[in-house]
Structure formats: structure tokens, C-alpha cells
Amino acid sequence: MTDTILIADDHPLFRQALALAVQRVLPNAQLREAGTLSAAAHAAVEADDLRLILLDLKMPGAVGYSGIALLHAERPSVPILVVSSADGTSAAEEARAFGAIGFLRKDSDLADIEAAIRDALGGKAATGSGEREAQIDTIRHDVANLTPTQLKVLLAVLDGQLNKQIAHSLGITEATVKAHMTAIMRKLDVSNRTQAALVARSLGLDLQH
């Protein structure tokens, strides 16, 4: 079975650059490309032989680290390598906390990207020079372990949507939305949707990168 690599980035030229890096590391890989988070999630679900996801943090449908959380929830066993223009070690640590195996800046040399892809395929976490390993916070762990639908509901709450609006956009009933919110609040150890939103916001889910 041919290995599949998913490249999720809204810039076609950068997708081409990542595709080149992948082909130099894994020449026989089948490449899937996505320009939005929803398309990436759909591709991740459909690819049975998915080996690696290359993900840009800032793309249509994503806020902050929600792309990592959603794709990790969809395919928890598939490593996610973030390639982003976000600055600082905090972004790298947050990315790993939400389920990414590694983090690279978009201005990294092609050789560095190839090395990170090779490490990720081998299950080795990619860490930049001088960066300390972040100890995963319990709350971040809880957010990362929400189901894909629960994450979509939480992101909709962050967007200020009411249960009726969330139900319509996700194609589920209001009762199901309420059930998901109950599960979310239990997992995050909060008592209402406002507190759940504050927890998510404090972890960077509504920050643009």
C-alpha cells in the first residue's frame, strides 16, 4: 500500500515546496493537498494509509491551534508536522501540546524541512535548536482529546454561535449540541459554556497565527 502524505496549506506555491520536500524524502508517496481546514479534515478521514500531515496553522477555517486539535482528533495515530510563520518557542510548544510532533518555520531551509519530515515519519519529535521540551498541560491534553464534533461545537461557541446556529451548521439537533456541550464541560472541568470558551481562549484556540 502506498504511503499518503497530506499537505494542508492555503498557499499553492508553498504546497508545491512542501511536496518537493516530501518527494525527496519519500519518492513513492501519494500526495493529498488541502487549502482549507475542512478539506484537510475530510482528506485525513478518507486516507486509510495516511503517514504524515504537514499543516499550516493559519488557513481558512482554522483559528489558533484548532487545526492541530481537529486533525489530531480525527487521526490521533498520524503525526502532524506544523510548518508555520508563527514566531517564538511558545508557538512551537503550544503546537506540540495540542498534538503536533514538531514545528518548523516557513522560512526554514529545504534541507531542514526534509530532515523534519524524515524525523516525523520515523516517529521522532522535531525540536528546534535550544528549545526545551514542553510538559503537556492537563487542560491542553483535555482539549486535544475532545472528539472532532466536540471541537467543532467548542469552536462555534468561541465564534459566539447559539445552539440553534451550531445545530444548523453541523447538521445535528439542538439536543445533540447540548449533549456535546455537557461532555465538553465535563472534560474541561467547567460548569458552563462561557467558562469552556474562556479555557479554549486561554489556550490560544482563538488566536491567529
From TrEMBL:
Keywords in alphabetical order: DNA-binding, Phosphoprotein
Limits of the Response regulatory domain: 4-121
SMART domains in UniProt: HTH_LUXR (SM00421), REC (SM00448)
One Pfam family cited in the UniProt record for this chain: GerE
PANTHER family listed in its UniProt record: HTH-TYPE TRANSCRIPTIONAL REGULATOR YHJB-RELATED (PTHR45566:SF1)
CDD domains for this protein: LuxR_C_like
Entry-linked InterPro entries: CheY-like_superfamily, EvgA-like, Sig_transdc_resp-reg_C-effctor, Sig_transdc_resp-reg_receiver, Tscrpt_reg_LuxR_C, WH-like_DNA-bd_sf
Lineage: superkingdom: Bacteria
List of residues that carry 4-aspartylphosphate: 56
Name of the featured protein: Response regulator transcription factor
Keyword Transmembrane helix: no
HTH luxR-type domain location: 139-204
